[in-house]
Amino acid sequence: MLYLLYERLAEHHHYVPVLNLLKYLTFRGGAAIATAQLVVVAMGSRFIRWMQSKQGKGQPIRTDGIERHVVEKAGTPTMGGLMFLAGITVATLLWADLSNVYVWVVLMVTLAFGALGFLDDYAKVTKQNTAGISGRFRLLVELIVAIAAVFLLIHFGPASPLAEDAHLSTSVTFPIFKRAVLDLSWFYLVFGAFVIIGASNAVNFTDGLDGLATVPVMIAASTFGLIAYLVGNYVFANYLQLHFVPGVGEVAVFCGAMVGSGLGFLWYNAPPAKIFMGDSGALALGGGLGAVAVATKHEIVLAIVGGLFVLETVSVMVQVVSFKLTGKRVFRMAPIHHHFERLGWAEPTVVIRFWIIAVMLAMLGLSTLKLR
User: Fold this and answer.
1) Minimal CB count within 10 Å: which of 50, 169, 284, 316?
2) pLDDT given for residue 163 in this prediction
3) How many CB atoms within 10 Å of residue 16?
């Protein structure tokens, strides 16, 4: 919004020195971090008290899970993801270039997945069980939203004469191999949708302990904010031998909003959590990260940077397959963070060690930008 104001004034030769800062993506990205954090903190305690009054018993806790959770976490409200979404939306609309299609696509995915997560949280709270809405219905909605988003990204994808590959919008790029590009044509719709849906549900699996998903999401968002900035800048992309994606740098503002919202939310979500983000947060944040990865053509790098989310998802898949085929469980409990709790690790120990792993994986993901 403010960027368009700056452009309008510049177009009519109205020079306002302070507004000149708005042409810098780095300034607007930093401003988005601060704005989103302020929005979430401002909602904070009042929103949590309101949710407690509306939800009563709060989020239902798995009775087949960790025994102490039933006692310690009982009554904690959920739907804290709405705080996240408020911060992201306000900061993005305020500081991003609203004429940029990439901004609208990633924001659309985030809000649509957030709305779906809200329905799931609402069903859990009202029914007081952990089932939520139908899995098939949830997957169908996710598929429709993801395919629509990828279609828009393909349609409005790299069309600049500066773009190296005319088919980049339907292609998969590979880290380390600078010239390796696989054009999937319209099958890319399926691939891109898989990335968005996979990321969304992977973050949802990870969101099982206080603060466990919040910080890794912030780390991944920070990493992809930098990637978007570099990939969207022809000079930097050319120097690093990355595939240049015209206009995608603006997504860095959205990533900044995600980081800022995470900082604000962590104040209330740190152990012991006063509110859970719920599916309204986890599905939205994962979907948003997946959409950013597709927009920046760094889908495979997301699997590295978000390796913790991948690990959590794989642990669930392995557990289910093993139990169905052999009747035995590989882990004491899945997702894997509960396995370590069963081994006797304290909750803060699991959370902080998983944060450390997330930082290490982010560094590994960023290193692929220079290894060419």
Assistant:
1) 50
2) 47
3) 12
* DSSP symbols for 28-65: HHHHHHHHHHHHHHHHHHHHHHHHHHHHTT-SPPPTTS
Which structure tokens are listed for 235? 């000079």
> Among 55-59, 116-120, 164-168, which is the least confidently predicted range?
164-168
Q: Is there a domain that residue 137 lies in?
A: yes
Residue of 17, 38, 77 lying closest to 9 (CA atoms): 17
Alpha-carbon gap, residue 231 to 238, rounded angstroms: 9
Nearest to 203 by CA among 251, 142, 161, 274: 142
What pLDDT shows up at residue 167? 75
Q: What span, in angstroms and rounded, lies between the C-alpha atoms of 331 and 276?
A: 25
Domain extent at residue 85? 2-367
Q: Does residue 133 fall inside a structural domain?
A: yes
Residue 372 lies in a domain: no
Type of residue found at 330 = V
256 and 181 Cβ atoms separated by less than 8 Å: no
Would you list the DSSP string of 179-197?
Answer: T-EEE-GGGHHHHHHHHHH
DSSP state of 249: G
Q: Which helix (H) or strand (E) holds 206?
A: helix 188-206
Q: What are the DSSP calls for 219-248, one per residue?
A: HHHHHHHHHHHHHT-HHHHHHHTPPP-TTG
Distance of CA 282 to the CA centre of its chain: 8
CB 217 within 8 A of CB 258: yes
pTM for the structure as a whole: 0.92
Q: How far is CA 370 from CA 240, 249, 364, in A?
A: 6, 18, 11
Q: Is the dihedral of CA 131, 134, 136, 140 positive or negative?
A: negative
Q: Are 39 and 90 in contact (CB under 8 A)?
A: yes
